[in-house]
């Protein structure tokens, strides 16, 4: 059983590794143009060099900063609005329609306007990220709160739970699975927004590194940036999944087989 | 460890939803520690009556007195066992039982509460299952946890809203015995709503038939316990009630 498991673990990596080897061979033997498609070894080399010079670290830091601040602000506001609207029907009636209307505006379409309003500084990018992640977190928090099992809430009331206790013990845990769906979705949106915002208007960050490299035809740097974005996305998703598994360990679908 | 049940005085209770009068001027006196069953067709108002007793709804007119005090809203002396177990899936079994206690009483420490909950779980036959999640339990086991949760605070009145409806026949018989044992030990007043006339008669001291928002039949069951299902007295009474329900 254990052996077979290990083999299955290896199995899924056979194809990607094979493709990278083919790429390496084709590119270093000039079967494909190595200026347009530099071999993986060169990209790795460039990565190490950029890391050693501190350049990669600097841009990575800036991008991570924008992502984190953006999701804290946008996600925080979305979460609070979702809670308030879900808990108080009056607030829901008052805010929800407006938020749903604004949600239909693609937030990246606001880039020209945001540049005029906020310039190309940090504020503009953080604003775009915050706006992008706000909606999925809002929608899923709101939905999660509203669909908590009424029977459980009634049970809580019979057993004397009310106000904060009822929220803490019954409503919030009941809404958590849905809130996590929103969080994971918005993590994807967070990187997407950042990529676009950083390639269009900026003077630092991973996206800027890629755009700057384009000016000098440094395809290795561009590909490196793309890979970094992919890794960051994967990292954020894995992190969210870990938190999810920890918090939802009571859930049948997360229950670990003993 | 024995707590007293409380007598119940229901006087001229009415409940209307718009133009629908579900309960009409219902009067009822229940002795302290009595085991009462309510039977009736769907829509006869038995669940509404139970919700009024639980304090989940307010009556349109009339008054309910429990042990000399009027029931207004949720009351820690009244506990409900629902048709579904309604355990919180994100709490372990023992934490679910603690829900029944922690809010009516602030004088107990955490370890005292845990000890009480563990003891209660032992009583319902679930010793050693404290730290499991509810989703791994069977339907009958979930209802046992739910019973433990209802009884841990030693309520004066226990309302049972068809709690055994979804269980298989064997589990039901087991649960009957368990409920009766705990009732004898704790001496609470019990109120069982059920569709099953046989179940009502084999458990209760008194069976009420609710019809059109009022009591159509009030039957004392003085058969000695334990009552076998095929006991002739039980079957005779069952026939009597069923005939009345079907208007034969």
Automatic annotation (TrEMBL), chain A:
The lineage of its organism: Bacteria, Bacillati, Bacillota, Bacilli, Bacillales. It is found in: Cell membrane. PROSITE patterns: ABC_TM1 (PS50928). It is a multi-pass membrane protein. This is Aliphatic sulfonate ABC transporter permease SsuC. Signal peptide: none annotated. Belongs to the binding-protein-dependent transport system permease family. Residues 56-240 form the ABC transmembrane type-1 domain. One of its GO terms (cellular component) is plasma membrane. It holds the Pfam family BPD_transp_1. PANTHER family: ALIPHATIC SULFONATES TRANSPORT PERMEASE PROTEIN SSUC-RELATED, ALKANE SULFONATE ABC TRANSPORTER-RELATED, MEMBRANE SUBUNIT. It comes from Robertmurraya kyonggiensis.
TrEMBL record, chain B:
CDD domains: ABC_NrtD_SsuB_transporters. Residues 8-237 form the ABC transporter domain. Keywords: ATP-binding, Cell membrane, Membrane, Nucleotide-binding, Translocase, Transport. One of its GO terms (molecular function) is ATP binding. PANTHER family: ALIPHATIC SULFONATES IMPORT ATP-BINDING PROTEIN SSUB, TAURINE IMPORT ATP-BINDING PROTEIN-RELATED. This is ABC transporter ATP-binding protein. It comes from Robertmurraya kyonggiensis. The lineage of its organism: Bacteria, Bacillati, Bacillota, Bacilli, Bacillales.
